[in-house]
Prior knowledge:
Strand content: under 5%
Structural class: mainly alpha
Shape: elongated
Low-confidence stretches: none
Order of helices and strands: HHHHH
Largest sheet: none
Mean pLDDT: 79
Amino acid sequence: MKKLVSILLLTLYLVSTTEIYQLLKIPELIEHYLEHKELNPEMTLTSFLKTHYDHPVKDGDYGKDLRLPFIIRSAPLALVFTIDKGFSFEKPLESKFILLTVNKFTSKDEDSCFTGYVNSVWEPPRFSFS
């Protein structure tokens, strides 16, 4: 479960901060290539890619061309934190250290223990119920 959650969070992070979301537009690339293939059966995939990516032309299907992957780039998510101009961080002139007194407490007080009580805790019961 942790692995699945970490993969999901990593995927969400990469999709929102990089251009990897453009890969989701690949079905539109295939569909647009098939449309061009119907108009010109001799068109190869490389000539289609050169037409749309190497030297793009504003033609009749320019609106569809803009929906292809890596044609229009968007700014990835950017988080910016600013500090208000009125914010100041000053070091105090005098550093005052307070000396703490250390009191030692014993972990076992021999006077408060009942004699023989600790040893009798682990004895088996003396009376059996039958």
